[in-house]
TrEMBL record:
Gene3D superfamilies: 3.30.70.20, Immunoglobulins. The keyword Electron transport does not apply. InterPro entries: 4Fe4S_Fe-S-bd, ET_IronSulfur_Cluster-Binding, Ig-like_fold. It comes from the Bacteria. This is Carboxypeptidase regulatory-like domain-containing protein. Pfam families: CarboxypepD_reg (PF13620), Fer4_11 (PF13247). PROSITE patterns: 4FE4S_FER_2. The lineage of its organism: Bacteria, Bacillati, Actinomycetota, Coriobacteriia, Eggerthellales. Residues 3-32 form the 4Fe-4S ferredoxin-type domain. Keywords: 4Fe-4S, Iron, Iron-sulfur, Metal-binding.
Length: 358
């Protein structure tokens, strides 16, 4: 039984507590036989790296806690077997007494987890807080400090690591830091109709890999789409929507995430068969009114209409007080018929005055 580090990138909020806790534990204090003190600057045995992804306007920042992976077959140990040892619990330790002057250990680590302390003439790295574990601690300081459980130190046999990845640089070395939700690539874009200058909602977007694997989604209410956790590869995007000519384009995410920008769809059907802007607006208003009605019903609300309120006469522009209960209403100044206006105003005020019943 031995423990491994499990890092869930989706839970890491970049608070840096783990990084600070490591500094607090090791700066200014040696923990023999595992370490000499960590310098205040220049070394991060635990470091929260920031990975910027995408292009404006779709940009995402992922935080990646980074530390020695305590490999089963460590390259650092191969470089200086007399100065590096592996404990029974799997922690890899650079012996601070035997490693003096062994600068080659810095280059030996494929992920740059070893730092050189010029003042002490000593290579140094994460010890997994072996001194604390020896004294009854269940987890290292960094894990203890993590408020979101993004960082865990757990028995390997008690955690499902089937979806976890390890760092590619350490392939074959048996790294013992497992990452969940390690960021892959994303492909995002927006679909719009240039003729009416509107986004296209519900367009079908397909992402097809070179091997023919297909992922599919519909554009949302803003015409946006986003495929996340895509493997770094070349793909084809196909966009289709009723009444529009299909659009196809290649997209390469081997190096970077991609925001492909605005994809214009050309309408091919008879425009006259399409609802006009006014018809669409009426339909949307009717739908919104239905939603309001459902919401009011679900809130067990009552609608109150104020007895008196002011309206501005569209005929003369003068403001006058009126009463929603009145039947036919005319402007007291220019006699314009205000009946419809007052009814509309009363309805608007009624919605605004919706209150929840006790
Ligand atoms: S990550 Fe680097 S320093 Fe840590 S055990 Fe592996 S090779 Fe050694
Ligand atoms: S303490 Fe946890 S949440 Fe904060 S940066 Fe470190 S791993 Fe992420």
């Amino acid at each position: 039984m031995s423990k491994v580090f499990v890092v869930d990138i989706d839970k890491c909020n970049g608070c840096h507590n783990c990084q600070v806790a490591c500094k607090d534990e090791h700066c200014g204090q040696p923990w023999p036989p595992y370490s000499q003190e960590q310098p205040l600057t220049g070394q991060f045995w635990m470091k929260v790296k920031e990975k910027e992804r995408g292009q404006v306007p779709v940009v995402r920042l992922s935080y990646i806690p980074w530390l020695c992976n305590h490999c089963e077959d460590p390259a650092c140990m191969k470089a200086a077997p007399e100065a590096v040892f592996r404990r029974e619990d799997g922690l890899v330790i650079i012996d601070p007494d035997k490693a003096k002057g062994k600068r080659e250990l810095v280059d030996a680590c494929p992920v740059g987890a070893v730092f050189y302390n010029e003042e002490l003439d000593l290579p140094q790295k994460c010890t997994g807080c072996a001194h604390l574990l020896d004294n009854g601690w269940e987890v290292p300081r960094c894990v203890d400090a993590c408020p979101t459980e993004a960082l865990r130190y757990v028995e390997e046999s008690e955690v499902d690591l089937s979806a976890a990845t390890t760092l590619a640089e350490l392939d074959g070395a048996g790294p013992r830091v497992y990452y969940l939700n390690y960021p892959k690539r994303f492909v995002a874009g927006l679909v719009f109709d240039p003729e009416v200058e509107e986004v296209v909602v519900g367009a079908c977007v397909r992402l097809t890999s070179a091997e023919g694997t297909v992922r599919e989604m519909l554009t949302d209410d803003f015409g946006d789409f986003k495929f996340d956790q895509v493997e770094a590869d070349s793909y084809r995007i196909d966009v289709t929507a009723d009444g529009y000519a299909a659009v196809s384009m290649p997209v390469d995410v081997r190096v970077l995430d991609r925001y492909v920008g605005d994809i214009a769809l050309q309408f091919t059907d008879d425009r006259s068969a399409r609802p006009t802007a006014a018809e669409t607006a009426r339909a949307q208003r009717a739908e919104a009114e239905k939603k309001w009605a459902r919401l009011r019903a679900s809130m067990n609300t009552k609608v109150t209409t104020p007895a008196n309120f002011a309206v501005v006469c569209p005929g003369c522009g003068k403001k006058m007080n009126t009463n929603a209960e009145a039947g036919s209403i005319r402007c007291q100044f220019c006699k314009t018929d205000l009946t419809d206006l007052v009814k509309q105003k009363a309805a608007e005020c009624a919605v605004k005055k919706t209150v929840a019943q006790a």
